[in-house]
């Protein structure tokens, strides 16, 4: 009787195993195929008698491990160098064989893909003096800029999908390039950069010109904007926000339309007022354009290539936010409440090229 019960129990236990799970033991014949495109490495692993793979990329100070049923994994290295990749074929978590390989990554730090045409604004205006500028002529950001890093609170308050890193902002060939990438970093599926002059440079009134070529596509959200210096004490929107330029990427008019907006606190409630300007054809990625505001104690005017398209009277007392100092922010977001998420039509990487930022007072 004991023999019969044991046999029945054994059969029942074996029947509960999923059909595609291999019996315990070591896999064999582990092989990988690596495809390297600039800094992107794609791994395709195969093995006999395996249930899953783990591929680990050792990237400077980060170690990124991807678990994969089909043996595929991709990682983007942002710095040239020699890196280790470890591939394991598992039957169970602790039953595996592994293959360690080194790859040589050579990354072009230039700004390939930037347009070579577009509007150029003058170096001076009647009644104004150039108070500050960054022409991005060096090989790194100047000390007038710092970074926002990570995912912020609730996706920077907008349910955005990107993780902000320093590496995605590159200065080379006379341009700042902010690149949004489709890559896994921490818990995010996208990375980008957001730089700002907060705590370093801020201004009250004047004309601000930013010459830039913009990214495009569903879910892509580049912005050139300003926040009040007192955001850390007053909070948002009481600090005030001036959006010099925002673009909500996507097919049709989206890739050729920019928006200029202000946000403020109207007796404790969020208030906003904005306008927009569309190109007659093409998209803002095709050429450089100059996005400007002219700001004084009474009003803010928005200009595209020195042609005004929107303005607001800031005289009301509840708009006192706009009679204080503001700092500048440049970023490319991915996803969020306004643009929505990227879809199958969105291509990566997406880049915002900035030729210069100039402040006249």
Helix/strand/pairing category: mainly beta
CATH topology value of the largest domain: Jelly Rolls
CATH architecture assignment name of the largest domain: Sandwich
Low-confidence stretches: 1-19
Helix content: under 10%
Through-space gap between termini: 97 Å
Taking the sheet with the most strands, its summary is:
10 strands, mixed
Count of individual helical segments: 3
Query: Can you tell me the overall shape?
Result: elongated
Counting structural domains, the number is 2
For the secondary structure, the number of strands is: 24
CATH class of the largest domain: Mainly Beta
Gyration radius over CA: 26 Å
Overall mean pLDDT stands at 90
What does this molecule look like?
The protein is mainly β and 361 residues long. The protein has 2 domains: 17-105, Sandwich (Immunoglobulin-like); 130-360, Jelly Rolls (Sandwich), CATH 2.60.120. The chain contains 3 helices and 24 strands. It has helices spanning 2-15, 155-159, 231-234; strands at residues 28-37, 40-48, 52-59, 62-68, 72-76, 81-92, 95-105, 130-134, 146-148, 162-164, 169-172, 175-185, 188-192, 194-196, 206-213, 220-228, 241-246, 257-266, 269-278, 289-295, 299-304, 307-313, 326-334, 350-360. Strands 8, 10, 11, 12, 13, 15, 20, 21, 22 and 24 form a 10-stranded mixed beta sheet that branches. It has a 7-stranded antiparallel beta sheet with strand order 9-14-23-16-17-18-19, with no helix packed on it. The model is unreliable at 1-19 (pLDDT under 50).
């Amino acid at each position: 009787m004991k023999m019969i019960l044991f046999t029945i129990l054994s059969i029942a236990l074996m029947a509960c195993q999923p059909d595609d799970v291999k019996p315990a033991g070591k896999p064999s014949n582990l092989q990988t195929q690596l495809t390297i495109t600039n800094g992107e490495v794609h791994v395709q692993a195969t093995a006999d008698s395996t249930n899953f793979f783990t591929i680990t990329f050792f990237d400077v100070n980060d170690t990124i491990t991807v678990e994969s049923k089909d043996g595929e994994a991709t990682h983007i290295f942002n710095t040239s160098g020699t890196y280790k990749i470890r591939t394991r074929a598992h039957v169970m978590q602790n039953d595996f064989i592994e293959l360690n390989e080194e790859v040589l990554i050579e990354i072009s730090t230039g700004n390939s893909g930037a347009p070579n045409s577009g509007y150029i604004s003058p170096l001076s205006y009647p009644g104004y003096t150039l108070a500050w500028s960054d022409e991005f002529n060096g090989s790194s950001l100047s000390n007038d800029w710092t970074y926002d890093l990570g995912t912020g609170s609730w996706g920077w308050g907008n349910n955005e999908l990107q993780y902000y890193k320093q590496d995605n902002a590159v200065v080379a060939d006379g341009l700042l390039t902010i690149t949004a990438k489709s890559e896994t970093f921490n818990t995010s599926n996208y990375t980008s950069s957001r730089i700002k002059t907060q705590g370093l440079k801020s201004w009250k009134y004047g004309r601000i010109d930013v010459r830039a070529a913009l990214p495009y596509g569903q879910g892509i959200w580049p912005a050139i904007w300003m926040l009040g210096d007192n955001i850390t004490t007053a909070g948002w929107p009481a600090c005030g926000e001036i959006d010099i330029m925002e673009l909500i990427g996507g097919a049709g008019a989206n890739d050729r339309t920019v928006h200029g907006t202000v946000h403020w606190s109207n007796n404790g409630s969020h208030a906003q007022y904005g306008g927009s300007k569309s190109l007659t054809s093409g998209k803002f990625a095709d050429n450089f354009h100059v996005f400007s505001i002219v700001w004084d104690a009474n009003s803010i005017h928005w200009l595209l290539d020195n042609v005004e398209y929107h303005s607001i009277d800031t005289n009301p007392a509840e708009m006192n936010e706009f009679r204080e100092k503001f700092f500048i922010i440049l970023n490319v977001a991915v996803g969020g409440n306004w643009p929505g998420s990227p879809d199958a039509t969105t291509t990566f990487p997406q880049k915002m090229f900035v030729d210069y930022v100039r402040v006249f007072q």
